[in-house]
Design brief:
The structure is a single chain. By secondary structure, the protein is mainly alpha-helical. The chain contains 18 helices and no strands. The chain is globular and about 60 Å long. The mean pLDDT is 84.
């Protein structure tokens, strides 16, 4: 059993990075691995199937609802951004945008928040360097904020499911760290010096209703697969992960920079972890997930829409994320 689970874990970590067809069909890949791991460990059955079918519902409904609201309210959103751009200095506007979407991602989901950030930056028409910097900082804030509730993104939804906790459990566990992180990256946005420039990327396109529905369906399959993986990998978690000290869990999760942090959450979280271990593991995932494009779903959404290269993202993401990791680790040690 352990060799089979180890193979599944390795496939989860490196498959989407090195195999392009898997990257393009990651939802079906995770769904298949979820079924495989639960079969290997004897977890496949009605309780697992019920969890896989029901746990993604809240997040999927939120993505669908706010996708529809975003499409209907797009003229109002455009007018609001233009009015703020005319009334506020650019640096203050960046601070407000980063902080607002970081906090709103808890409610409107990380995917919708990332799409709105991209649309706002296209409208502002600044130089490429400023555009990339603000988008990367915004995705840091969105990734942090979305980790507080199951409606924020897959990471929080999977964590709550794996731990077996209530809706606001992660708020109680992480809020001082998450809010501090959002505040720090928002302030960093004030140091971005904008230069007015013609938009250097593809023009704005109107999102179709079919795009909104398809995005919701793909997210449902993605999270259902992660729930299965979480159930299937519990023997590995119980055997190894729950014995790891919080410092090891925190720094080990820096690989979330290159591996989607929700997949790592599915592989690590379980009721066997103590509070300090849960906090350290999740904060390591949330922060490092913003450093490179593959680390988080909002990163992928924004980078694809604006054609941001891995090198462009890393220039901002690593310089922001590594000091945040060190600072958060120091605070975690102090709190413990």
């Amino acid at each position: 059993m352990i060799p089979g689970l180890t193979f599944a874990l390795v496939a989860i970590l490196i498959g989407p990075i090195f195999i392009r067809p898997i990257e393009r069909n990651i939802e079906l890949f995770f769904l298949s691995l979820g079924a495989l791991t639960t079969l290997l460990t004897g977890q496949f059955g009605w309780p697992m199937l019920r969890a896989a079918a029901t746990e993604p519902l809240a997040l999927t409904a939120a993505v669908l609802l706010f996708g529809v609201v975003g499409k209907l309210a797009r003229p109002f959103f455009d007018d609001t951004v233009q009015a703020m751009n005319s009334a506020l200095p650019a640096r203050l506007l960046y601070l407000i945008l980063i902080a607002a979407f970081g906090l709103l991602s808890t409610v409107i989901t990380a995917v919708v928040a990332a799409l709105l950030v991209v649309e706002a930056m296209i409208m502002l028409r600044v130089d490429r360097e400023s555009e990339v910097a603000v988008v990367v900082l915004s995705c840091f804030a969105i990734g942090l904020g979305s980790g507080l509730t199951p409606t924020g993104g897959p990471l929080a939804a999977i964590a709550i499911s794996a731990i077996g906790a209530d809706f606001f459990y992660l708020v109680r566990l992480l809020w001082p760290f998450v809010l501090s992180g959002i505040l720090i990256v928002s302030i960093l946005g004030m140091f971005v010096t904008p230069v007015s420039a013609k938009s250097m990327h593809i023009p704005r396109t109107e999102e179709q209703w079919s795009d909104i529905v398809l995005r919701s369906v793909r997210l449902y399959i993605f999270v259902a697969g992660l729930v299965g993986i979480s159930w299937g990998l519990r023997p590995l978690v119980i055997a190894y992960v729950d014995r790891a000290p919080q410092a090891l869990l925190f720094w080990l999760n820096s690989i979330s920079a290159v591996v989607d942090n929700s997949a790592l959450t599915a592989a690590e979280m379980s009721p066997a972890l103590g509070l300090a271990q849960q906090r350290a593991a999740l904060m390591g995932l949330l922060i490092s997930g913003g450093m490179l494009i593959p680390g988080n779903i909002p990163n992928i959404v924004a980078a694809n829409r604006l054609a941001i290269s891995s090198r462009e993202w890393a220039r901002v993401g690593l310089v922001t994320g590594l000091p945040l990791m060190v600072l958060c680790f120091a605070v975690l040690c102090f709190v413990t």
